């Protein structure tokens, strides 16, 4: 396997950074079916890692394990020095450090955009409402929809909803952001507005794990691309390595289908 | 580039939303003739059906009117018995309590309405249609009712030689009903004027705020008490005589309290409006919710008991003992939540539980005397001790447990003291509160108490802990497998056996308990339906932003689940309200029973039943119709968030 080489070959810019997410031999079973088979990877602080691979390869399962939406059965996951165990306090801590953006947005339909964003800062971070609202408005500005604060999610377009979802995660001031196919449920004309926000985020230096099929985004923004298949990481490398001379046949096959 | 992109997408999109919002259910209006042709006479089948339905409606209306205005009706039976219909024989000297309770509810309702004031508007067109419709219906009623029987100077009917009744001519009848005509015309004209104004308005869908319309209506109704000659009818209990003076306004003791009620409603509404926008809006909303939750108990004390507390005993015995127990228990809990307590803590908690259970066993066999209050207190302490491991560690958490336990214990002690003390309200029999007062009292308390219980049961039934799931499921299934009437009988017969001496009104308290437990099971099923409609994504999103399970439930899951189940919940409220008439079977005097058997038993009105029952039916309908209309409105308004 070329995994180890590629890990060390990762972008120089990250060479002396701390480890942010460390997964060692992570196994995950759904009944008898093994969805993750010994996934091992280290993601540095400030790194943007793009995960791709065919449907059913375990991409979602993996990143959902990282904030404990799924429980892994074997191996270790350590996020920012906190190990994910059954201890509720660790889970709480990790969830307030890790933001997640879903394919289906999952905004709270009964709350206004502003309330969607301020809910967690007020109740989890115990911020005063005024402060939380000011921050929410600033975040809406940042994702380009300051004028939608008072609306309900149902009154927004898909792209706007996804940007609100990003703002909602950012409101917790996370150190890590997980994206699970954030643009797959969007119409083509709205994909760009979401990707632009994500690019801006990547520049800001936050650690990101992004499951996506947007290869243009991966080529432009990713520090590393990880290719998964059958619950395993098959190949890891810089975008350059990945798009120009992938070593594994399975990667080549996948790339030929998607590009 | 991004901006340009946005510019091209957003405005259109927003435009679409605004269009939808401004005309939610706008039906294009047609000229009357065309509307009739399209809707009622579009085909010959339709025409026949229309004519047939029209005849049915005509005869039904005529029948009702002739019944109501027949010379055989003794409306005095209802009018002079209004007090009996409302509260039966509730002591007149204590009446202020009923008004105080009603005032409390009115104020609280006003406050809540103000705090959540987003009632929206009702289109002017709608209001003018109501006005014209009512006016038109009134006019039709005046015409279709058959001419009245002629009464002689002695007030008796005049008969012809053959013995048949003599009726006034149609023309005379129309003239005699001039006051009705005037009312109809006033309504029609008001409607037309509004319509005109509306038609000339430049922008579509001009609206009046719903709250103004409602308050205006209530205001006019109360004002009419002061000026309209409804007549003064009453039963004077001192002289045991009936008063029936037509042509006067109602008694002072009626119009003044109602005016105060309206004033309370309006002023608290205004207060709520003010506070809504203040900094403490959220806090006050929480407080008013809490008030609703405790209001049943409060009302129970105010209306039914207000016990004569022996303050000497309270201060010399109850308080010191309670404080000592609180201090001791608090210290135990505090030490049980120390970080290093380990196995020893569990042992102490188990021993406490054992002792608490032993107290109840001992009570059963009569081994040693102990206050019921103390038994309950020990049980509570044992439960708190069992919970201790969850609150271990930080000072704040430990304090939470101790303070929570203290609060619950204080409440229990307060209630137990009140229940054990003789009431100052004189109770002659179970008749003492009855009528609409009893019906509303029971309905309000049952709805308010069973609501949180039902929500808890629903959460329990969908919980991931098998023990909660099992308990809730079996509870719900058992209750749903039993008819209400048997639950009521069970509680009215069995519960008094468990109550301490000196507690009066056991019957009503027991019935309330049984009815609440019954209603909660059904509410739970309705809420569960709503819970199931919440998608997995909502739970995951809530988890991902770091909410705790409790926060997730109260901010994300329940609000949505309850919104979805509004129609079923309201259906349950309505049926709870209607089924209070079953209280008659276990010997209480509800509204219907007063009309059906109390009034007809009075020597003045022997066998006069139908008038009362008609009134009861109308009032039931009025309440339920209002509730159901309100819920439709609520559904539409909260639906806003769902689109
Ligand atoms: N809750 C579940 N129960 C059982 N099997 C599951 C569950 N969730 C996922 N799986 C299985 O685990 C495997 C990995 O699923 P996962 O959702 O991680 O794939 P993915 O790579 O994200 O695919 P896609 O690109 O389609 O989203 C699949 O074979 C899927 O069928
Ligand atoms: Mg997936």
Produce the secondary structure layout.
The complex is a heterodimer of chains A (about 260) and B (about 650).
Chain A: H1 3-8, E1 19-30, E2 33-44, E3 48-52, H2 59-66, E4 74-79, E5 82-83, H3 88-97, E6 98-101, H4 113-123, H5 129-142, H6 158-170, E7 176-180, H7 188-203, E8 207-211, H8 215-221, E9 224-229, E10 232-237, H9 239-244, H10 249-258
Chain B: H1 2-22, H2 32-39, H3 44-69, H4 76-79, H5 82-87, H6 95-115, E1 121-123, H7 124-144, H8 170-176, H9 178-200, E2 207-209, H10 210-227, E3 232-236, E4 241-245, H11 252-277, H12 281-305, H13 311-336, H14 342-365, H15 372-387, H16 395-420, H17 435-461, H18 466-480, H19 484-498, H20 506-532, H21 536-544, H22 549-564, H23 566-579, H24 591-598, H25 610-639
Antiparallel strand pairs in B: 1-2, 3-4
Bound molecules: adenosine-5'-triphosphate (ATP) and magnesium ion.
Adenosine-5'-triphosphate (ATP) binds next to strand 2 and helix 2 of chain A.
Q: Estimate the mean pLDDT confidence of chain A.
A: 90
- How do the strands line up in the largest sheet of chain A? 6-7-8-3-9-10
What gyration radius of chain B follows from the Cα positions, in whole Å?
A: 30 Å
In the predicted model, the low-confidence regions of chain A spanning at least 5 consecutive residues are: 1-9
Q: From N to C, what is the helix and strand string of chain B? A: HHHHHHEHHHEHEEHHHHHHHHHHHHHHH
Tally the helices of chain B: what do you get? 25
Helix content of chain B: over 70%
Report the count of strand segments of chain A: 10
**Structural class, judged by helices and strands of chain B?**
mainly alpha
Stretches of chain B where pLDDT is under 50 for at least 5 consecutive residues are 1-26
Q: Can you give the helix content of chain A as a percent range?
A: 25-40%
CATH topology of the domain at 428-643 in chain B: MetI-like fold
């Amino acid at each position: 396997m070329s995994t180890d080489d590629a890990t060390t070959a990762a972008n120089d810019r990250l060479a002396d950074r701390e480890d942010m997410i460390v997964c060692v031999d992570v196994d995950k079973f759904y009944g008898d079916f093994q969805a993750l088979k010994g996934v091992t990877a280290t993601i540095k602080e400030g790194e943007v890692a793009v995960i791709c691979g065919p449907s059913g390869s375990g991409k979602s399962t993996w990143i959902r394990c990282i904030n404990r939406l799924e429980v892994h059965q074997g191996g270790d996951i350590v996020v920012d020095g906190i190990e994910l165990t059954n201890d509720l306090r660790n889970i709480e801590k990790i969830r307030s450090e890790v933001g997640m953006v879903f394919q289906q947005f999952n905004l709270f339909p009964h709350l206004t955009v502003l309330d969607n964003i301020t809910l967690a800062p007020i109740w989890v971070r115990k911020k005063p409402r005024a402060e939380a609202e000011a921050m929410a408005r600033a975040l809406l500005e940042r994702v380009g929809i300051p004028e939608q604060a008072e609306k309900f999610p149902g009154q927004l377009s898909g792209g706007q909803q996804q940007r609100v979802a990003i703002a909602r995660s950012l409101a917790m001031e996370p150190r890590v952001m997980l994206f699970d196919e954030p643009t797959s449920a969007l119409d083509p004309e709205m994909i760009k507005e979401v990707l632009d926000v994500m690019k801006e985020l990547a520049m800001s230096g936050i650690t990101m794990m992004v499951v996506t099929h947007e290869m243009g985004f991966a080529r432009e923004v990713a520090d590393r691309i990880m290719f998964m298949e059958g619950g395993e990481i098959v190949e890891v490398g810089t975008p350059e390595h990945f798009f120009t001379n992938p070593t594994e046949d399975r990667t080549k096959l996948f790339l030929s289908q998607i590009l | 580039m991004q901006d340009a992109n946005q510019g091209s997408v957003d405005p259109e999109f927003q435009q679409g939303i605004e269009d939808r919002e401004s005309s939610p259910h706008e039906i294009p209006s047609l000229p009357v003739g065309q509307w009739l042709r399209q809707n009622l006479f579009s085909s010959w089948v339709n025409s026949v059906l229309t004519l047939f339905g029209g005849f049915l409606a005509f005869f039904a209306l005529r029948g009702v009117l002739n019944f109501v205005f027949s010379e055989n009706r003794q409306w005095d039976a209802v009018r002079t018995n209004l007090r009996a219909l409302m509260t039966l024989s509730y002591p007149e000297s204590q009446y202020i309590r009923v008004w105080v309770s009603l005032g409390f509810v009115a104020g609280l309702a006003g406050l809540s309405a103000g705090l959540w004031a987003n009632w929206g508007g009702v289109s002017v067109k709608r209001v003018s249609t109501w006005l014209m419709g009512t006016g038109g219906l009134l006019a039709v009623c005046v015409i279709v009712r058959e001419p009245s029987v002629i009464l002689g100077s002695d007030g008796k009917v005049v008969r012809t030689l053959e013995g048949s009744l003599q009726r006034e001519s149609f023309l005379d009848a129309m003239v005699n009903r001039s006051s009705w005509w005037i009312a109809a015309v006033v309504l029609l004209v008001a409607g037309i004027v509004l319509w005109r104004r509306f038609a000339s308005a430049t922008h579509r869908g001009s609206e009046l705020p719903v709250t103004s319309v409602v308050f205006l209506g209530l205001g006019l109704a109360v004002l009419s008490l002061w000026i309209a000659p409804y007549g003064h009818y009453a039963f004077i209990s001192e002289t045991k005589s009936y008063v029936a003076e037509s042509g006067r306004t109602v008694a002072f003791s009626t119009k003044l309290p109602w005016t105060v009620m309206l004033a309370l409603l309006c002023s608290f509404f205004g207060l709520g409006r003010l506070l809504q926008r203040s900094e403490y809006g959220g806090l006050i909303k929480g407080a008013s919710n809490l008030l609703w939750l405790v209001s049943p108990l409060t009302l129970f004390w105010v209306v039914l008991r207000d016990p004569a507390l022996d303050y000497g005993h309270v201060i010399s015995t109850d308080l010191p003992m309670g404080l000592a127990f609180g201090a001791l228990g608090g210290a135990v809990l505090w030490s049980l939540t120390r970080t290093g307590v380990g196995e020893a803590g569990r042992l102490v908690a188990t021993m406490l539980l054992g002792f608490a259970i032993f107290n109840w066993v001992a009570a059963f066999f009569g081994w040693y005397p102990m206050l019921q209050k103390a038994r309950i207190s020990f049980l509570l302490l044992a439960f708190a001790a069992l919970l201790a491991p969850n609150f271990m560690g930080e000072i704040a958490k430990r304090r939470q447990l101790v303070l929570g336990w203290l609060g619950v214990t204080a409440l229990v002690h307060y209630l137990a003291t009140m229940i054990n003390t003789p009431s100052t309200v004189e109770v002659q029999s179970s008749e003492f509160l009855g009528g609409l007062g009893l019906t509303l009292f029971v309905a309000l308390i049952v709805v308010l108490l069973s609501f949180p219980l039902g929500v808890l049961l629903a959460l329990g039934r969908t919980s991931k802990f098998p023990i909660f799931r099992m308990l809730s499921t079996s509870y719900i299934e058992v209750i749903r497998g039993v008819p209400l009437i048997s639950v009521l009988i069970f509680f009215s017969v069995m519960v008094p056996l468990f109550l301490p001496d000196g507690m009066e009104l056991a019957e009503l308290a027991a019935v309330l308990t049984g009815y609440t437990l019954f209603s909660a099971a059904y509410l739970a099923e309705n809420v569960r339906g709503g819970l199931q409609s919440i998608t997995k994504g909502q739970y995951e999103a809530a988890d991902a932003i770091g909410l705790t399970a409790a926060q997730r439930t109260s901010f994300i899951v329940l609000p949505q689940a309850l919104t979805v189940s509004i129609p079923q919940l309201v259906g349950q409220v309505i049926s709870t309200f209607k089924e209070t008439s079953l209280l008659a079977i276990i010997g209480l005097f509800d509204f219907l029973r007063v009309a059906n058997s109390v009034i007809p038993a009075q020597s003045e009105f022997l066998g006069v039943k139908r008038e009362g029952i008609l009134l009861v039916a109308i009032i039931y309908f009025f309440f339920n119709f209002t509730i159901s209309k309100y819920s439709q409105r609520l559904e539409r308004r909260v639906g806003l968030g769902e689109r």
